[in-house]
Design goal:
binds zinc ion, 4-stranded antiparallel sheet, single chain, alpha+beta, Alpha-Beta Plaits, RNA Polymerase Alpha Subunit, Chain A, domain 2, two-stranded antiparallel ribbon, 4 helices
Length: about 230
Amino acid sequence: MPSLAIDEISIYDNTSVLFDEQLSLRLGLVPIKADDLSLFSVPEECECGGAGCPACQLGMTLTAEGPCTVHSGDLRFADPGVKAAFEKIPIVILGDGEKLMLEGTVTLNRGTVQVRWQVGTQCGYKNLPDIQISDQCEGCGKCVDVCPRKILVIEESEGKLEVTDPTNCSFCKLCVNECEIGAIKVVPVEDVFVMKIDTDGSMPAKDLVAGAAGEIKRRASSLSEQLSELA
Ligand SMILES: [Zn+2]
């Protein structure tokens, strides 16, 4: 899934305690979000052929003088619809009279090229837990006490055991072990998955999943086209 990142910078003045290279690495990893990402093209796929044009390159500047802490929110982008995903990422602390003056370009690209364009930071999945409670359950509540995720409750009016949020179950099976009469079963639903995805903040997880699905579709049809040319 393509995203924006600071790709190249030219440093005109840097009297901070950080070397130019360290500063560049920090700036490259600042997550950047755009109001409309579809306005940008990956340079290699751009109509300009990668030479650099408004569709595939966006200018940015950073000017600061100490004493102050330079934050991601101090970055200035040529497009008002583009900004740092978080305002308060510290970049460098400038002492009295220390200066920073640089400009650079922001480009759209993918995490497969370099980590600075990677939107997804964590991703994990599990089968959907199916917590089955048999009629033998006497509503003693021992399982409610041992559940670390607190997803079991005794329903007040009828005194029966209920599951509040099965997706939050971690399959620890402490409830199963605690139940002396064996009234609880926890089994994974084989064809349903619960996914957890975290992003760098440049886009919501929902957009990332939808965008990634679109990306797979695009690559699959491109492969299919190339194969049909061979046949
Ligand atoms: Zn271009």
